Amino acid sequence: MAVAEHTESTRSETPPQDTAEARVPTVIADDLHIVYKVNGGPRGRGSATAALNRMLRRKAPAGMREVHAVRGVSFTAYKGEAIGLIGSNGSGKSTLLKAVAGLLPAERGHVYTNGQPSLLGVNAALMNDLTGERNVILGGLAMGMSREQIRERYQSIVDFSGINEKGDFITLPMRTYSSGMAARLRFSIAAAKDHDVLMIDEALATGDRKFQKRSEARIRELRKEAGTVFLVSHNNKSIRDTCERVLWLEKGELVMDGPTDEVIKAYEKEAGK
Amino acid sequence: MNPRPSPDDGLSPADLAAKYGLSVSGARPSLPAYVRQLWDRRHFILAFSRAKLTAQYSQAKLGQLWQVTTPLLNATVYFFIFGLLLGGRGGMEMEDYIPFLVTGVFVFTFTQSSVMSGVRSISGNLGLVRALHFPRASLPISFSLQQLQQLLFSMIVLAVVLIGFGHFPMWSWLLVVPALLLQFVFNSGLAMIMARMGSATPDLAQLMPFVTRTWMYASGVMFPLGYMLDKRESIPGWVADVMLANPAAVYMDLMRYALIDNYGVENLPVQSLVWAVSLGVGWALLIGIGGFVYFWKAEERYGRG
């Protein structure tokens, strides 16, 4: 996908590029804790009036439950790295990504980032009732691309998604797409922009084998363009193919942080039990 | 990672972040920076509002024709009920009353639907807010812009109604443009206020229809407010002035003054055009700027928790 971008990225030009050994950190998580506050449903009678009372007094609801999703995770990610996140369901992988993206507040600890990390999650901006064509434009604008950038890349986005391989589908409303087609278009739109720090949540699980291959190639490309890529996936193979470093989370804690082979081996041993 | 000796080894995470110029993720930008970000997203705001407008009728067989048909049907209903069944009201002839009524309904609907979509603009788009970075004020502004475009379709119907009742285009019709712009600024500000409140307490969406309906009756959408208040001896003059000075009434009366030739200055607040225009500008600036600052103050908290 020939969409190399040389944009006015907000990367701060810091000096330490003098030696080949110097690595530039792009994301630093320092003892990060994330706590979700969840409204724990109505409890018995009179809960509506009780809720009104609490609303007026601005007190936390009694039924509020706390979920401690990430517990004290620290790591430093460097420029040009692709980092895989693994762990069982509910281990806090997606939460960690959202916190790095600045979309969830930290309860304790800090996340420092270079520029604006973005989640590969353009889905929410797209509208099923609009044509694929208009969604490409809308999604691009939502990610902060300019009209000219979108016009330049429009064709490559459509070609990459392969939507038009079986006829002129891009001019049909998105609700008429199969789920695989829609997922491919979403990934293509999101990957069209070059991000300083890109985070991908299970995106590679979608689409057919051919498209997965293309996505992996695109991720390697994004990485080369001096970004850092985070990838959450349950598919160990796609992690092996794209990442050289893996963070293993379990119950919100960092179990292991190291080279892909080592960590995945340990993870598979643990999961195989 | 294979540990390589590096001059950074001894640094604490905070020092390391400072050394390489990393910043805390998700902090609120300053007000000027926020305005700049918002301006950079102007194409997104416009595209989002137009997409919402188009998506609204995309499943209907008549498609975008409904943009004009819906206000036309609305006007027809009011014509039957107030024009034919009840006859003209408030000391007005029917050929003045129907344009008066239709103008009022369309203009008030603009504010009303901006408020309603404003309340849900954050709480109803959490997916978007949680997935992408953009100045959140884009959403309430975009929804107000959607309502403005909706109103422009209604204006076509309004022109037909006016001409149908013998009010032909005149120069004063041009005053509609600044009046609509002022109302749009006011509505966006109000939508931003409602958006912040609605994101903290989504229950407001249930409450707002009653508030706006009360507001509608208090602003004289269906009857000339000044005339009704004058008839009642018990209401002191200043109450009438306050009611006439409320923003919805101001924008409606400015619009009627511009469009209907028999609707003179005596219907405007304090019986003066200068006063009415100043009030229109004042409300737009107060709510527009105030609402924006109020919304910005909570920028980093939208879509969380």
Automatic annotation (TrEMBL), chain A:
Cross-referenced SMART domains: AAA (SM00382)
UniProt region (Disordered), positions on chain: 1-23
GO molecular function: ATP binding
Transmembrane parts of this sequence: none
Basic and acidic residues: bias regions: 1-11
Entry keyword set: ATP-binding, Nucleotide-binding, Transport
Signal peptide residues on this chain, from the entry's feature table: none
Location of the ABC transporter domain: 50-273
Coiled coil segments of this chain: none
Family, per entry: Belongs to the ABC transporter superfamily.
The protein's name in its UniProt record: ABC transporter ATP-binding protein
Source organism per UniProt: Streptomyces lycii
